[in-house]
Design a protein that fits this description.
alpha+beta, Serine Threonine Protein Phosphatase 5, Tetratricopeptide repeat, 5-stranded antiparallel sheet, two-stranded antiparallel sheet, 8 helices, globular, disordered N terminus
């Protein structure tokens, strides 16, 4: 009897722990939203940051970007808008706010001409598409192999052909989704970007604090990280310029 009571107590506590873990972020999010609505942006930022420390959450990334924008923290605003854009590449609100934030920073860097087909491929394999393609892969493979299994038990020739064709179709779609999922993963691993968070930072020709300064970058500028040392990161701008910048002046997206 005592053992059953103890087991029931432990199960109840485990359940309550799971429920609390599910409700607490929601309550924190609502509290942060309330703080934002009253103009208490610092409290809102603290709330959103506590959520993002434990979870990937599009709304928190977007809202914390808005809070930083209201406080004219251009670097953090752009950082969180960029992170939100990774999760939802087609979101028009994120795009609009990111454009507004970028219009407030000092550096104006023109991108090199890009290939139209490459732009389409980059949109298809954006990091935020990972969940979509992985779900499509699992769904279509499940359907395809289920149809193959069903085909084994069907006697009619026409039905067997129909099920076989359907199975091949879904398996091929699943294979294409697998390729896209893998491409997204490779892009996440290889294309690391960062935002300049310092008011002003020197880009040098070598990873040393006393090396020659090539040019200066300012808060909010987005860069691509192509190499790292313990103190400096090698970065590339959208116009092709390359140099080394102090790691402490950057935050990775």
């Amino acid at each position: 009897m005592m053992k059953n009571l103890l087991l029931s107590f432990l199960l109840t506590m485990a359940f309550l722990t799971v429920v609390w873990g599910q409700l607490d972020p929601r309550e924190t999010f609502e509290a942060a939203n309330s703080a934002y609505a009253t103009g208490d942006y610092e409290s809102a930022i603290d709330g959103y940051e506590s959520i993002l420390a434990q979870n990937m959450h599009f709304e928190s990334e977007y809202n914390i970007g808005n809070a930083h924008y209201k406080m004219e923290h251009w670097g953090p605003a752009i950082l969180h808008y960029e992170r939100a854009a990774l999760m939802s590449p087609s979101n028009s609100d994120v795009k609009a706010n990111l454009t507004l934030a970028n219009s407030r920073i000092k550096d104006r860097i023109e991108s090199l001409p890009s290939n139209g087909i490459l732009n389409v491929w980059e949109r298809i394999t954006a990091p935020g598409r990972f969940q979509l393609w992985s779900r499509i892969m699992l769904l279509t493979w499940t359907l395809g192999f289920s149809l193959l299994a069903w085909r084994i038990w069907v006697l009619g020739i026409e039905n067997r052909r129909l099920l076989g064709s359907g199975a091949v179709f879904f398996i091929l779609i699943g294979f294409a989704a697998m390729v896209l999922t893998r491409s997204v993963l490779l892009r996440i691993e290889s294309s690391k970007s960062a935002i300049v968070m310092a008011i002003e930072s020197a880009v040098r020709n070598e990873p040393e604090s006393n090396a020659m300064t090539l040019f200066m970058l300012h808060e909010g500028t987005k860069v691509k990280v192509i190499d790292r040392t313990s103190t400096h990161w090698k970065i590339q701008l959208s116009n092709g310029n390359i140099g080394w910048i102090a790691a402490a002046d950057l935050t990775e997206i």
